[in-house]
Amino acid sequence: MEGIKSGHQTIPGFSLSVFTDDEINTLHQATLELLEKTGVKVESEEALEIFQGSGAKINQKGNTGIVKMPGHLIEECIKSTPGDIIYHGRKPEHGYRISQGHVGFSTFGECIKVIDPETRQIQSASKKALGKASLLVDYLDQIVLLERPMGSLDKPAMTQPLHNFEAMVTNSSKHIFMGCNSGTNARKIFELAAVCMGGTDKFREQPIITSFVTPTSPLELVQSCCDVIIESARAGVGVAPISMVLSGATAPATLAGAIVQHNAEVLSAIALAQLTKKGTHCTYASCSTIMDLRFSTPAVGAPEYGIISAGLAKMARFYDIPSWVGGGHSDSKVPDAQAAYESALTATISALSGANIVYGAGCLDSGLTFDFSKLVMDSELIDNIFHVLKGIEVNKKTIALDIIHEAGPGGEFLTKQHTFEHMREMSRSSLFDRRNRDKWMEQTKGEDLTSRAYEKANQILKTHKPLALPKSAGLEMKEIIKEYEDSLGIV
Amino acid sequence: MAGANLIYGLGMMEMGVTFDFGQLVMDNEFAKMIMYCVNGIPVNDETLSVDAIKEVGSFNDFVTRKETFDHMRSISHPKLIDRRVRDKWKAQGSTNIYERSTEEAKHILANHTPPPLSDDARAELKAIVEETESHLGVEKTRPEF
Known about the structure:
The complex is a heterodimer of chains A (491) and B (145). Chain A is of the alpha/beta class. Chain A has two domains: 9-392 and 427-491, Alpha-Beta Barrel (TIM Barrel); 396-425, no CATH class. In chain A, 45% of the residues lie in helices and 15% in strands. Chain A has 18 helices and 21 strands. Chain A has an eight-stranded parallel β-barrel with strand order 6-9-10-11-13-15-18-19, surrounded by eight helices. A four-stranded mixed β-sheet of chain A has the order 2-3-1-12. In chain A, strands 8-7-21-20 form a four-stranded mixed β-sheet. With 145 residues, chain B is an all-alpha fold. Chain B has two domains: 12-112, no CATH class; 115-145, no CATH class. Chain B is 52% helix and 3% strand. Chain B contains seven helices and two strands; from the N terminus they run ββααααααα. In chain B, strands 1-2 form a two-stranded antiparallel ribbon.
């Protein structure tokens, strides 16, 4: 191989080119123009105080104000947001480190229904089912973070996030992403987390939770969003502003416009976090998609969901801020071929764009229903996506010209030492079936993938044991929740 | 995404041993969605819509805007992929996509007619097949076209 120089340089792996550098710059400039000229509505006196004196122009009426942020302020806040961070778990090996180009997967939240893996009947989501889903996530290596897959709908609405946290932290030692719904809830959840880590100092060192906060589209930071950002930043907990712009409903019908608006909303929330405490970990998050105007439903299995996610992941990478985008959801009501295809398309596109976290595993019904079999199937899909991301290594050994010479026309490769050495690099299926029809029938008795996936999920749920919490932590959490509910007058 | 000019495999199952009509119809729909992704996100003054976002401002909607009406047909519109709410899906029979696709395949086969070949061409095709068969000593078959 005379053609290959020594020290041949390649960028390893597959990736997706989404925007040119000029296009990224155009999107960035349009975002700055929007934040400076139109600004964002902020519904919190405390947040307005924080913006005061930062260089932002504020037009305040009562506890609400329009905050117009100059470009240099936004750019300073982007710079003070760390790009290389660790999402700590209770178990050190469950920590997930973000660095440029690192792709990982998570579940979606928060569903309100669940398909029972034993009876396969649809039910309302509950604390018990959330615990089970968390246990499955704890087991599956492909899922690096635990976003609350569903809500504890059998618990009081006001304190539900505390119950969600308790169910998740008891059944999994992975880093938790969740919404707190209010500043006071956030404080209480951090108290619960400190109990699980053996004290507030330990929790500050290894915050095992990131708070989701949702800017309201278009262009508004409501009271609860501001409160949770401020509480989290002060407690040393990371925030993940997650906008859900619906192209055609709460954002322009053209995707570039939807991306600019999303970008403005998320950057304004990141600015509040950085102005509260410089260096606060922020995750640039997205749940944005199109509104299917025929049915007035947010389409999360749509190709647009994949490409908006890919576009936003590129914006986050441009800012060197960890990204969290959609991929792997489905609009299908059942774990069928539609669910498989939609998950594969959107998850692959997001992963190829270099998103740091792609979330959607286990989710059906436009984000309303969680399914255990889908989470298991998605995990195998994720293995395959990683295989794609690795791409094709090109060097002397992988081109193997001498082996092809040796085999010659009409030769074979099965008996070659080279084949034996490299066969383990090939993708291997576990639940996905690659046998011939007779062997498949013999092994599975004709059962399809979904049935096999339910079986595997049930097997894991029966046998997997998560890392135990420190002694008495379970009891202490229950006491804190009870005391809090008593103080709120909840029976 | 790598720009292949033709991608083949639609309708195939079992490593290419089995063909399925429902699978072909389903794959056709998926291919449309993939084409949508390949087209990407155009970035220009019109698609950025900064003026529209400024006009709408905080806490309003875009549903009633002319730009939305103008661009609504550019969003993906699948036919067999289901995006309805669960109750509407139930009301239409709680089907999975394979059932819907197989129905669609039956419907197409019953109703679609390709542009017909001329009588001369049909006769000539038949003659070529018969001649080839007799040349090879194959037992005669009756072409069905």
